[in-house]
Amino acid sequence: MSNHPKDGVQLTSFLRPDLVNMHAYSVPDSSGMIKLDAMENPYSLTNTLRSDWLEVLKHIDFNRYPDASAKEITKTLRDHLNLDEGFDLLFGNGSDEIILLLMLAMEKNRTILFPEPTFVMYRLLAQIVGLKSSGVTLKESFQLDLDAMLAAIAKENPCLIFISQPNNPTGNVFDRADLETIIRHTNGLVIIDEAYQAFTEHDALTWALHYPNVLILRTFSKIGLAGLRLGFLVGQNAIINELHKIRLPYNVNSLTQASLLFVLEHYDAFVKQTQQICMEREKLLVALRQIDSLTVWSSETNFLLFRPEKSANDIFQALKENHILIKKLDQAHPILSNCLRVTVGSPEENIAFLDALKKLV
Ligand SMILES: *Cc1c(COP(=O)(O)O)cnc(C)c1O
């Protein structure tokens, strides 16, 4: 054991040098907090529903691997979405995993493109897999800068374009005509990330029919199942079949597969909660707009973006001392300077947040 590595320098000497400058995705400790930072659904299910669900889980053969091709959930979700023959589905351990799979499938040295500010995982995962990324700043209205997007497409010839529709963290939907122009001007795949589809009237599923380079990404996280870790991608067979080659065989575990069947059978309960969240969002929007010193943007998601006149950082910290956790976006992008984002909580949570906030602004 004479040349056994003894210090950290040797232990990390074989790692990618760019890891040194990267940071692990950090999730703040939220124990004992009113948690309004991560777009989770605040409601729980009835006791009956919970025990019926547990009853289903009781019968899982935990000694066996999950169904590697996820046949049952694929069929059930296909029916639920009314998917046409030519389409296929790919499941992931959250849509985050699907974003990673898409990137792993790309040629080296290619570029991925997205408007900015947007969901941070696009850039982070590109960095992890070693793809270049290019962000195109949104207009002040948070709409796409179409000319800049088209110029970036011409210059970078991106292999993937990620569009969060509605956009996280700005909460708005992008102009559909702009999106179609982008889709028609690229040779790359356009991923419409509909993580917040449940909270808006807009839906791009049919675009996957018309445009072979469009893929639709969705997740069950924001409607109340963040703990399950289940996302899915819809697209034409030719692309989805290739992506299956990159996926780990058992990426969706037995608990999650069984749970999805249960969830789709009882989908009404989740739809009801979603509608309630949308109602609460509008109430919260009105209440925030009554505060003179705030700019608040309307939203088609389960969160609201706002900008106080006072320091966002001070307000964030003071809320935290009051056991209310929201999200600070001040450093995320220049057009979000001094901005904060709050997830729509239960009526009680929203009142607690508003009361605390009013004392601080
Ligand atoms: C939350 C979020 C996701 C990630 O969802 P998971 O399925 O929980 O991994 C993807 N895209 C956007 C835009 C999101 O806000």
What is the number of helices? 14
Q: Residue share in helices?
A: 25-40%
Largest sheet: number of strands, sense, barrel closure: 7 strands, mixed
Distance between the termini: 63 Å
Strand content: 15-25%
Rough shape? Answer: globular
* Gyration radius from CA atoms, angstroms: 22 Å
What is the H/E order? HEHHEHEHEHEHEHEHEHHHEEHEEEH
Bound molecule kinds, no repeats: pyridoxal-5'-phosphate
Mean pLDDT over the residues? 95
Strand arrangement across the biggest beta sheet: 2-8-7-6-5-3-4
Going by helix content, strand content and strand pairing, the class is alpha/beta
- The number of strands is 13
Unreliable sequence segments: none
Describe this structure in words.
By secondary structure, the chain is α/β, with parallel strands linked by helices. It has 14 helices and 13 strands. The protein has helices spanning 8-11, 47-58, 71-81, 95-104, 121-129, 146-156, 176-185, 207-210, 221-225, 237-244, 254-265, 267-289, 312-321, 347-360, and strands at residues 34-35, 87-92, 111-116, 132-137, 160-164, 189-193, 214-219, 231-236, 294-296, 303-308, 324-325, 327-328, 340-343. The strands form three sheets. A seven-stranded mixed beta sheet has the order 2-8-7-6-5-3-4, with helices on both faces. A four-stranded antiparallel beta sheet has the order 9-10-13-12, covered by helices on one side. It has a two-stranded parallel sheet with strand order 1-11. The model has no long low-confidence stretch (mean pLDDT 95).
